[in-house]
C-alpha cells in the first residue's frame, strides 16, 4: 500500500514538473483579420472618392496615404482619424493629437511610418513583416516583406501607429485544465470494474487535457 501511495505521489509530482517546463496553452481572442495581398478593385469604395478622404481632394491612389487611409477604413469599418497631411507628417499628426496608440512593435493592421512613406502591416513572421502599400506617382499597389523597425526606401523609420487595435486584438494565452489518470499499481485495486481513479487539477478554464500516466510510469523507478 505504501509503495502504491509513493508511486501515485511521484506520478503527480512528475506531471507538475512537466506542466511547468512544457505548459499547454491555447489562444483566446483570435482575430478574423484577413491580410490584403492583392490590389483593391477600382470600384472598392474604401479606396475611391466614395469614402476615401484623400481621393475626394484629388490625391487618390497611387498614393501611400490614400491607400493607408482606405486600408484602415476597410479593416475597422470606421473612417480613420488621420485624414490629412502627407506621409512625412502622419506619425506626428497622430502623436500630437493622441488619435491612436503607437510604438516600436509591429501589429497586424498597424500603419508603418517612415520619414516619407506609410504602409499597412498585413503579416508578421518573426522579425519580418509584410506590408501593403501604394506609391505616389508610381505603383498603384504592391506588397513588400522587410525587417520590422528598420529604415527603408532610404528613409528613417518612425514606428507603428496602431490604428486597427480596436479590431485586431492581441491573442492572449489561456491555460488548460489538466487531468491525470493514475493506473492501478501493485496491490492497488481499480475502481468500478477496472476504471482507474482520476485526479483533476483545475489550473484555469479551458478544455480538459487527458494525460495518461502510463507515459510517466515508464520513467519512474521502482520505489
Description:
With 223 residues, this protein is of the alpha+beta class. The protein contains 5 helices and 11 strands, in the order H-E-H-H-H-E-E-E-E-E-E-E-E-E-E-H. The protein has a 6-stranded antiparallel β-sheet. The termini are close together. The model is unreliable at 15-30, 171-182, 184-188 and 198-223 (pLDDT under 50).
Give the arrangement of secondary structure elements.
Layout: H1 2-21, E1 25-28, H2 53-56, H3 64-76, H4 87-97, E2 102-103, E3 111-114, E4 117-125, E5 128-133, E6 142-147, E7 157-161, E8 172-175, E9 177-181, E10 198-201, E11 208-212, H5 214-217
Strand order of the largest sheet: 2-7-3-4-5-6
Strand content: 15-25%
The biggest sheet, with number of strands, parallel, antiparallel or mixed sense and barrel status, is:
6 strands, antiparallel
Q: What oligomeric arrangement do these chains adopt?
A: single chain
Give the CA-based shape. Answer: globular
Give structural attributes:
single chain, 223 residues, alpha+beta, six-stranded antiparallel beta sheet, three-stranded mixed beta sheet, 5 helices, disordered C terminus
Summarize the structure.
The chain has five helices and eleven strands, in the order H-E-H-H-H-E-E-E-E-E-E-E-E-E-E-H. The chain has 223 residues and is an alpha+beta fold.
Amino acid at each position: 500500500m505504501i509503495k502504491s501511495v509513493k508511486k501515485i505521489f511521484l506520478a503527480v509530482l512528475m506531471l507538475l514538473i512537466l506542466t511547468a517546463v512544457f505548459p499547454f496553452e491555447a489562444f483566446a481572442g483570435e482575430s478574423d483579420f484577413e491580410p490584403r495581398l492583392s490590389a483593391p478593385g477600382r470600384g472598392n469604395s474604401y479606396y475611391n472618392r466614395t469614402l476615401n478622404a484623400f481621393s475626394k481632394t484629388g490625391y487618390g491612389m497611387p498614393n501611400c496615404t490614400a491607400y493607408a487611409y482606405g486600408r484602415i477604413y476597410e479593416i475597422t469599418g470606421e473612417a480613420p482619424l488621420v485624414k490629412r497631411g502627407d506621409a512625412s507628417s502622419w506619425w506626428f499628426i497622430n502623436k500630437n493629437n493622441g488619435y491612436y496608440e503607437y510604438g516600436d512593435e509591429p501589429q497586424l493592421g498597424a500603419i508603418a511610418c517612415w520619414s516619407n512613406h506609410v504602409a499597412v502591416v498585413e503579416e508578421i513572421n518573426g522579425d519580418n513583416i509584410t506590408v501593403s502599400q501604394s506609391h505616389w506617382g508610381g505603383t498603384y499597389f504592391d506588397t513588400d516583406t522587410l525587417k520590422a523597425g528598420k529604415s527603408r526606401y532610404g528613409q528613417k523609420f518612425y514606428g507603428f501607429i496602431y490604428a486597427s487595435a480596436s479590431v485586431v486584438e492581441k491573442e492572449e494565452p489561456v491555460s488548460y485544465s489538466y487531468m491525470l489518470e493514475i493506473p492501478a499499481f501493485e496491490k492497488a485495486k481499480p475502481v468500478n470494474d477496472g476504471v482507474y481513479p482520476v485526479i483533476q487539477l483545475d489550473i484555469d478554464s479551458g478544455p480538459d487535457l487527458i494525460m495518461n500516466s502510463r507515459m510517466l510510469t515508464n520513467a519512474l523507478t521502482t520505489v
